[in-house]
Amino acid sequence: xxxxxxxARAAAHVLAVTPAVQKRRAIKAAADALEAxxxxxxxxxxxxxxxxxxxxxxxxxxxxLALDTARIDGMIQGLRExxxxxxxxxxxxxxxxxxxxxxxxRVSVPVGVIGIIYESRPNVTADAxxxxxxxxxxxxxxxxxESFHSSHAIASCLRSGLKAAExxxxxxxxxxxxxxAAVGILLAMDGDVDIIVPRGGRSLIERVKEGSHIPVLAHLxxxxxxxxxxxxxxxxxRDVTFNAKMRxxxxxxxxxxxxxxxxxxxxxxxxxxxxxxxxxEVRGDAEAMALDSRVVAxxxxxxxxxYLDAIISVRVVxxxxxxxxxxxxxxxxxxxxxxxxxxxxAERFLDEVDSAIVVLNxxxxxxxxxxxxxxxxxxxxxxxLHARGPVGVEQxxxxxxxxxxxxxxxx
Length: 411
Fold this sequence. Notes:
Layout: H1 2-15, H2 20-36, H3 38-54, H4 59-65, H5 69-83, E1 92-97, E2 103-110, E3 113-118, H6 123-134, E4 138-142, H7 148-164, E5 172-174, H8 181-187, E6 195-199, H9 202-211, E7 224-228, H10 234-246, E8 255-261, H11 268-277, E9 281-284, H12 286-291, E10 296-297, E11 311-317, H13 320-330, E12 335-339, H14 343-352, E13 357-360, E14 380-381, E15 389-390, E16 397-404
Parallel strand pairs: 3-4, 3-6, 4-5, 7-8, 7-12, 8-11, 9-10, 9-11, 12-13
Antiparallel strand pairs: 1-2, 2-16, 14-15
């Protein structure tokens, strides 16, 4: 681990001033390597999937772990999109000249060395590696034991891309062990690692936040909401709610709670019908149960639960104020949507809901860096410091001040 840290720091020093054309060449070469290694990656993933099934991992974890042709295509496309992005390093963010003649620039620079700790999603390997390289950062990756073989196969392609572009392969390193002690060591490497980005379930995030000596950029839960306002279009409410819950139930942007305005309550059976048909369990308050007999009773715990499964909680609310209060109280400040044809109601919801992403008349599952035009993301931050929302190349930079003088001395 000490060797990984020293190698990453040395690589980061060079990568920070590497021209954009060379970084792009490395990422494009990595995409080509992924294309050529499809069979190897699928075979590695099949080994991980077999072990995961033997360990009785739940359906959500298996879904996150699985790689098929479409998901490999997505990784390759994501790398190529990242390579096409503007270079986030060296941007002049602000510039001013003081009365004494000093010219001051605020300029974007890489963070340095980023440690990424993740669980079952092997595609994070490709996303994180490409984003770190494009933003001028060295990466130390620590995949979960579930995705060990898949992630190492993907990391090998990324390192091949670096080599092809005549960059140090140490720009992307993956910890070569499943020993959990490696995580504890990584979290204490504050001399070599500048920031930790954990991506996974609550237990992982909490362990990282509690044990890290290094600043952490993370989200804890994805308790996302759809609020059906009284003016919502019924077809939009039905279709968006279904997609927000069921497109992929195991992602952090999946809706977990449906709030429906009392003025729109008659829409509820129609909104719920496709959910029931898809096998989704619906837990609701007394009013929701009265509107549809298939709804089972929700407990107070349900309003604060990230299911990551085919389960949704439903509450009837008395207007916009109560909806906003519920989201701000029970949500995780991740992604929340309002469905409405009322512009004033939309504006209030978007302004007053304290979440990283707020959405009007669209699915919460658009909470994704690729969908935001970032090419990919390391994760979605629902904190308020440094970065918020999808974490892409710009969010993996910080800044420094450059001050240009002509001999001034301070009186």
